[in-house]
Design goal:
Structural class: alpha/beta
Helix content: 40-55%
Bound molecules: 3-methylbut-3-enyl trihydrogen diphosphate, magnesium ion
Shape: globular
Number of strands: 6
């Protein structure tokens, strides 16, 4: 696998980091062991993004629907988020990673909210990689929040455009994802970036997230670089060549 040239790299990669539970169960381990292994892998992929020159990485870490899991697993996932911030912030900051949070912060424990806000503040001037952490994130929730704020701001109906809606989302100012990767083989969006994904390219692999390493990531980037993104259009030169 070789790294595509910079103009063929996605500017924004978004990842549905799925399959941690099955990875663990396959090994006779508790599901939380899979989530821990997943965070180890995340470290590898963040490093790879910095090395390869990907500018934006959005990771789906906890969905608004994941509250429906057993209490022990939800608590464990909250704990892992705190742990990751405690142990990784320094290195992420040194690597030039700017951490952002997307999703509902107000429903998380006060201690977690504080850690997340600290991490965002500490890294706010970094510019090698923007890392959007989708934690307690749901695409429908994001759109509902946006509509509520648009109404509160008294925006008149004719002023509402796609760009205006985008500017009210958690991802305001971030380009839409070019490439969305989903590990563990599921062919669904699971409420992730449902607005922003309008023209994203997809790469789905059966590999579980803890095993999705740098080589697999390179494969996803290479596959992306060979995609023909048409955005609903027909290439005018090709059209003329075929209809001359
Ligand atoms: C993804 O792994 C991580 C989270 C949703 C937090 P899963 O926990 O969904 O793993 P599977 O899909 O059950 O294997
Ligand atoms: C999506 O995975 C959420 C995250 C990766 C955080 P899920 O495992 O929750 O999605 P479903 O239930 O398979 O759709
Ligand atoms: Mg899953």
């Amino acid at each position: 696998m070789s790294l595509p040239s910079s103009e063929k790299l996605p500017q924004h990669v978004a990842i549905i980091m799925d399959g941690n539970g099955r990875w663990a169960v396959k090994r006779g381990l508790p599901r939380l062991a899979g989530h821990r292994a997943g965070t180890e892998n995340l470290r590898r992929i963040i490093r790879a993004c910095v090395e390869f020159g990907v500018k934006y990485l959005t990771i789906y870490a906890f969905s608004t629907e994941n509250w429906g899991r057993p209490r022990e697993e939800v608590d464990g996932l909250m704990h892992i988020l705190e742990d990751v911030i405690d142990h990784e912030l320094k290195e992420l900051n040194q690597q030039g990673v700017q951490i952002r949070h997307i999703g509902r912060l107000d429903q998380l424990a006060a201690s977690i909210q504080k850690k997340v806000l600290d991490a965002v503040k500490t890294t706010q001037h970094n510019d090698r990689l923007v890392l959007n952490v989708a934690f307690n994130y749901g695409g429908r929730d994001e759109i509902v929040q946006a509509i509520q704020q648009i109404i509160r701001d008294g925006v008149s109906a004719e002023k509402i455009t796609p760009d205006l809606v985008s500017s009210y989302l958690y991802t305001a100012g971030v380009p839409d994802p070019d490439l969305i990767i989903r590990t563990s083989g599921e062919l669904r969006i699971s409420n992730f970036l449902i607005w922003q994904a309008a023209y994203a390219e997809w790469f789905v692999t059966p590999i579980y997230w803890p095993d999705f390493g740098k080589e697999e990531f390179l494969k996803a980037l290479e596959t992306f670089s060979n995609r023909d993104r048409r955005y609903g259009k027909v290439d005018s030169k090709e059209y003329e060549d075929n209809h001359a």
